[in-house]
Amino acid sequence: MYRSVIRPILFRFDPERVHYFSFSSIRWMHRLGLGWLFRSLYQVNDKRLEREVFGLRFPNPVGLAAGMDKDATLFNELGNMGFGFIEIGTLTPKPQAGNPKKRLFRLKPDQGIINRMGFNNSGVEAAAERLKKNKGVLIGGNIGKNKTTPNEQATSDYEICFEALFEHVDYFVVNVSSPNTPNLRALQDKEPLTRLLQTLQQKNSAKESPKPILLKIAPDLTDEQLLDIIDIVNTTGIAGVIATNTTISREGLKSENKKEAGGLSGKPLTNRSTEVIRFLHQNSSGSFPIIGVGGIHTAQDALDKLEAGASLVQLYTGFVYEGPGLIKRINKTLLTA
To answer: Structural domain boundaries of the chain?
Structure first.
């Protein structure tokens, strides 16, 4: 029904407006007491789907990637759609409006999305307050820096977010790979990235119960840079990697709006993100967990990433194009694979 009826209607309107309309609709339906309907339609509850990864037990391996619930406003409701975990953010210390609109574009012939949102969010403190109402959803906290913070002071922004979210999330994701904040990707260079992660790990180690810290990387890294990532993970002792964020590549696209600036997600990223997962897994001898994300539009796409070495997977653009039924299809396929 989603693909045949709901999606054609939604796709007639501006994608950012549709996002907020969809969130409002889902929230309204839950306030009417229809959470049970979402659970009955989309959840697959089976012990065989459970995964223990970096010390956490996930009810199933299919999560929602960061960027959908940036402000932690709908995580409980989205949890009813069958996700095993929800990643909120990217959050920054101070609220920021993000980049000027229009900043979100569907590439329907390519089944992709280009976004240049620019970490629009209401600030980490507001999100932390909302997370106090969590009803048992496993939450990842994706953190970044404010646009106005120079890279030389970026570590302080990540520390602020880390402290504000620590009591409210189950794991952290350090986002240095978004193409939509000027110069952010320079933090992926080996020296500044090592310093950043070591600082966060020191703060983490001082806690009574440290939380897993993961690094989210771009799909545009070279093999040499990916080898550096492996070295950085081993040196800093972080829990793992999320592969991958959006790409700046436009290779092979057919859509008229393919030249829009921003990060590309969806089907055009399917193969490259899987390649990155396989490279990291093989060259690290599987020494750390990987969450695979990028172009998962079918159950087979998810299986390919898991077979390449991912321990868990996440959806974003595939969720937009295929609807919540995709979560159920993946989990059902995993039970028979």
So the answer is: 2-336
Number of neighbouring beta carbons within 10 Å of residue 73: 16
Q: Which tens digits make up the pLDDT trace of 252-280?
A: 999 999 999 999 999 999 999 999 999 99
Q: Which long-range contacts (CB under 8 A, 24 or more apart) does 150-153 make?
A: 151/183, 151/184, 151/186, 151/187, 151/192
Tell me the CATH number for domain 2-336.
3.20.20.70
- Cα–Cα dist 91/209, whole Å: 22
Q: What is the pLDDT of residues 201-244, one digit of tens each?
A: 999 999 999 999 999 999 999 999 999 999 999 999 999 999 99
Told to judge if 178 belongs to the known catalytic residues of this protein, a careful annotator would answer yes
Alpha helices in 149-245 (DSSP H): 154-165, 190-205, 223-236
Residue 306 is encoded by which pair of tokens? 């898991």
**Quick check: bond before 92 cis, omega within 30?**
no
Distances (CA, A) of 119 to 129, 142, 145, 313, 314: 19, 11, 9, 22, 19
Separation CA 195–CA 164 (nearest Å)? 20
Tell me the two tokens of residue 195.
């310093």
**Beta-carbon contacts of residue 36 (< 8 Å; ≥ 6 apart):** none
Of the candidates 177, 178, 284, 311, the residue annotated as catalytic is 178
User: Which residue positions form the known binding site?
Assistant: 66-70, 90, 115-119, 142, 175, 180, 216, 244-246, 266, 295, 316-317
Paired residues of 217 in beta bridges: 243
Q: Find out whether 80 and 35 touch, Cβ atoms under 8 Å.
A: yes
Q: How many CB atoms lie within 10 A of CB 108?
A: 14
Stretch (H or E) spanning 293:
strand 290-293
